[in-house]
Structures are given as C-alpha cells and as structure tokens.
Amino acid sequence: MDGDVEQPMLAKGPPSHRERHFTAGEVVRDVIMGVSDGLTVPFALAAGLSGASAPSSLVLTAGLAEVAAGAISMGLGGYLAAKSEADHYKREMKREQEEIIAVPETEAAEIGDIMAEYGLEPHEYGPVVEGLRRNPQAWLEFMMRFELGLEKPDPRRALQSAFTIALSYVIGGLVPLLPYMFISTVQDAMLTSVVVTLLALLVFGYIKGRFTGSRPFLSAIQTTIIGAVASAAAYGMAKAVQAR
Amino acid sequence: MDGDVEQPMLAKGPPSHRERHFTAGEVVRDVIMGVSDGLTVPFALAAGLSGASAPSSLVLTAGLAEVAAGAISMGLGGYLAAKSEADHYKREMKREQEEIIAVPETEAAEIGDIMAEYGLEPHEYGPVVEGLRRNPQAWLEFMMRFELGLEKPDPRRALQSAFTIALSYVIGGLVPLLPYMFISTVQDAMLTSVVVTLLALLVFGYIKGRFTGSRPFLSAIQTTIIGAVASAAAYGMAKAVQAR
User: Fold this and answer.
1) Of B18, B72, B141, which has the smallest distance from its Cβ to A233's Cβ?
2) Cross-chain residue pair B219–A84, CB shorter than 8 Å
3) Residue A148 main-chain phi, psi, to 5 deg
4) B235: distance to nearest CA of chain A, Å?
5) Do A138 and B148 touch (CB under 8 A)?
6) Cross-strand partners of A20
7) SS3 track for A157-206
8) Nearest by Cα to B118 from A129, A105, A95
9) Is B148 exposed, middle or buried (0-12, 13-18, 19+ CB in 10 A)?
10) Cα–Cα distance for residue pair A98/B151, rounded to 1 Å
C-alpha cells in the first residue's frame, strides 16, 4: 500500500491508448479527505458551542447546517475544480500541438533542454529527439508529461470524486453530531461526542497513515491533535463572542 | 498568467542544484483556496441560521467558531499533509537509490520502458540510458521525476502555505460575518451579508478564473452558485432541525 494512494497509476501501453485509470486507491484517498474534514470541523463547532453553553437544539442546528454547507462546498467545489483542470489540460495540449506544428525546431530544442538537465549530451539524446519527431502524437504526449508535467485527467473521475468526498464529509460530520440527537442533556451529549470523536480521529488517523505510507501512530496522534486544537479554537471564539 | 498558478516552476540547471522554487503563483493559489472556502461555508452557515430565525449573537457565535475551527483544520491539516508528502518523497527517493545500487539492470530497463511508451526504439534511447547510468545522481532524479512523477518538495513551503491558507480562510470568513457584528437587526444583517458576500463571490470567482486561466466570467458565476447552493442547503437543514 506504500505510496499507492498518492501516485496516479498510468496504464503502460502505446501513448495513444494511455489513460489515467481510476484506482481503488483514488476512491480511498477521497474518502480519507472527506471523513478527515467531516470529523474535524463539525466536531469542533459542536464542542465549541456546547462548551459555551449553547442548548442542544442549537448545537445540532449549527452543526448539521455546517455539514450540509461543507459537503456542498467540497463536493461542488471539487467537481468544478476538476473540470477546470480538465479544461486547462485540453487548452495546454492544443497550444502544445500548435507549437509542434508551427515551430518544430523550438519544440525539439525543448526536449533537448529537458534531457540536458540530467547531464545528457546532444549525441546521446539526439536519437530520442528524432524518434519523437517521427511520431507527432507521441511527441505531443511526451511534451505534455515531461515538459508541462500534466497528467491527462479522466472526466468521469471529477463527478465520482466530488460525490465521494461530499458523502464522506457527511458521514464524518455525523459522528460527532449523533450524540446530540439522542442524548438530552447537552453536557452529556458533548462528553459523548468528544469521546466518540476523539476515538474516531485516532482510528481514522491511523488508517490514513497506513494508506499514505506514513507512520500510522504518528498520523493518528496528529489527526487527533488537529481535532483538539480546532475545538479549543472554536470554544475560545464562542466564549469570546458571548462575552461581548 | 495562463496556467502559471498550476505549474510548479523548476529551476533549470544541473540536477544536483535543482530545487522547487516557491513562486508568487503558489502564494496566490493558496490565497485563492483559502478565501474561496472562507467565503462559502461561514456565509452559508450564517445565512442558514439567520434564515431559520436564530438571533444575531448566535449567528456570530456559530459563524466565528466555525471560522476558527476551519482555519485551524485547513492550516494544520495542510501543513501536516505537506510534511507527510515531503517524508513520502524522501522515502521513495531512498528506495529508488537502493534499487539503482542493488539492481541497476532492472532500473536501466525501466528507463527503457518509459521511453518505449513514446514509440522509441532501443537503439534510439540506448545512449540516454548509458548517459544516465554514468551519472547516478542524475539517474536518481530522472527516475523520481519520470518514473514516479514526484517533485522535490520545498520544506519551507509547507509552513508558509499552511499559514497563508489559514489566514485567507479567516479573511474570507469575516466578509459574511462582519455585518452581524455591526447591524443590530438580524434580518438587516443577513440581507447585507448576502449582498456583500454574493458580490465578493462574483469578484473572487472572476479573479480565480483569471489566475487559473479558465474563463473568468464562468468562474465568477460558478463560485457564486456554490455559495448560493451551500446556503440553501444550510438553511434547509437548519429549518429541518428546528422543526423537530
């Protein structure tokens, strides 16, 4: 699993058939992102408001409203950002294609520049340049990847990713809020929420660490600390506003 | 500006001196991200709560608490994510280095595989492979970039980025909340907040479009729509909870 989540997996094969496969790893990454955020801000908001003596109904109102707004913002925002990247890729590809047609010598020289960065001599990379020039489609894809560093985005991923992140945010956000729905005293609800959420943050931080290949225990602690600090900040702010 | 924000700018030069420069474009991107989120969720939460007849003090309490929690979550979370990426890069680099030493033939064959994807023949890329093998440091950097697609992260960027995003989120969040601090009637405050924030979303969406090279007017409309939909969701949720 080491590093799987962070590397886009490219299909090996002729460039004209290269597509960026969506992998289970990418869905997992979206879930991790959504749940992480959902576990943190709604929790902090609820804990902060409870600590500042707000009634249960209010904590729930604010908390669930935030989850709704946050899910929409992440989901729609993520979707539009992905579409924007896809448009950007198309525009850059078109421009690169025009340059290959209009000023091939300049483009060929750019391949040389890239190769030269690795200490390669013209007589060493010359045949590569010639080979690419023979195959304009491959040349174009080479420039997209190695000059511009752009991966071809999968249009279906945008929608899927947005939906996954938004849904994960909702699930993450419900964890700290459910106690307020079922426990009548706000102090008891808050205590339950804190315990349940901190446990969830620990577990989730650990899972996150495993999937991203970083140290899971460290990740668990860090994730939990972020939740704790965010809550403290929300609590402090709520108290400050109430003191006005 | 087209595409500037999205491409990391690599310093051209000998690989051993290559570093990922932090550019004004990256700071701008962080500001855009932070302000976008700050303008959306706090606005939606405040509008949703106001619309569901919460008193001004409550809207402010919840709104500012959310801004505090959100800024911490984005800032700390972003910082730790960047550190985690930097650790991941170091680990992958170490592993790649060990492979180059232990199984150079396999690694050399991998260069060939990458080249072959672009229709290049062994006699064309052979000299490149030999050239890289001569220079293990350059070979390592070539594999990092072209096999794994990883850019060397700048450690200072993590802290700077986190701080920028968090501060931007706070600034974005204050825009919809300031009216509630200075206007006593919650309906008037909400109306002012809605007008001011929708204008801000339009302007900001436009600026975002300019910097990312996508159509600015479209970006302005989309950004504003996200804010509107998120508010509607927050309002609907707040009403639903109050109706329990």
Assistant:
1) B72
2) yes
3) -95, -15
4) 7
5) no
6) A10
7) HHHHHHHHHHHHHHHHHHHHHHHHHHCCCHHHHHHHHHHHHHHHHHHHHH
8) A129
9) middle
10) 27
Minimal Cβ distance to A241: which of B54, B61, B124: B61
* Closest-CA distance of chain B to residue A185, Å: 16
pLDDT of res. B23: 60
- E strands, A86-156, are none
Q: Using CB atoms within 10 Å of the CB of residue A102, give its burial: 0 to 12 exposed, 13 to 18 middle, 19+ buried.
A: exposed
ipTM over 0.95: no
Query: Is the distance from CB of B226 to CB of A80 less than 8 angstroms?
Result: yes
Higher pLDDT pick, A16 / B153? B153
- Tokens describing residue B192: 């002012």
Check CB contact under 8 Å for B236 and A68: yes
Q: B102: part of which helix (H) or strand (E)?
A: helix B56-102
| Distance from C-alpha of A213 to C-alpha of B95, rounded to nearest angstrom | 13
Contacts of A62 (CB under 8 A, 6+ apart): A45, A46, A49, A54, B45, B49, B58, B62, B66, B238
Interface test with A, best of B135, B241, B242 (most A CBs within 10 A): B241
Q: What angle do CA A81, B39, A156 make, to 5 degrees?
A: 20
Determine the residue type at A220: A
Beta strands in B51-132 (DSSP E): none
What is the block-wise mean pLDDT of chain A (244 residues), using blocks of 10 residues?
36 38 70 89 92 86 95 88 82 89 88 86 85 87 84 81 93 96 90 95 91 86 94 92 81
Distance CA(A42)–CA(A48), nearest Å, equals 10
Alpha helix (H) residue ranges in chain A = 24-51, 56-102, 104-116, 122-133, 136-142, 155-182, 186-212, 216-242
Collapsing DSSP states into helix, strand and coil, what is residue A28? Answer: helix
Q: Which residues does residue B20 pair with via DSSP β-bridges, in sequence order?
A: B10
Residues from chain B that touch A141, judged by Cβ atoms under 8 A, are: 118
Residues with Cβ < 8 Å from A24, sequence gap 6 or more? none
Is B72 part of the contact surface with chain A (CB cutoff 8 Å)? yes
The secondary structure of B176-222 as a DSSP string is HHHHHHH-SSHHHHHHHHHHHHHHHHHHHHHHHHHHHTS-HHHHHHH
Three-state DSSP class for residue A20? strand
Query: Which chain B residues in 177-196 lie under 8 Å from chain A, judged by CB atoms?
Result: none
